[in-house]
Amino acid sequence: MSAQISVKLSMDAAARFRSQTPTNASSGELPELIRRLGIELLPVHPGIDDPELASYFVAQVPDRNTAEQFAARLLGCGDVEGAYYSPAAEPPSPDDTNSR
After folding, report:
1. pTM of whole model > 0.85?
2. Structural domain includes residue 99
3. Among the four 16, 60, 80, 100, which has the fewest Cβ within 10 Å?
4. How many domains are there within the chain?
């Protein structure tokens, strides 16, 4: 089952990151780390003008273990203000339903 990493970049880093395209991505610590990890950061709020909301991204990874490792590595990057594993929502079990 795939997992998700939620990432909060500094506003400056988010603006730089959003202005890059895959063909002209600038060098730097964050783009280099993302390439090494083999992940793609996708904006949570694409096309938004609010700089605070524009600083939130997500990345899909193969599993929870990988997500936790990658989140820890991302946290070591100066442009990353937060990174954590977001567990996937699980469907409720039959015991969790309220049938009356």
Report:
1. no
2. no
3. 100
4. 1
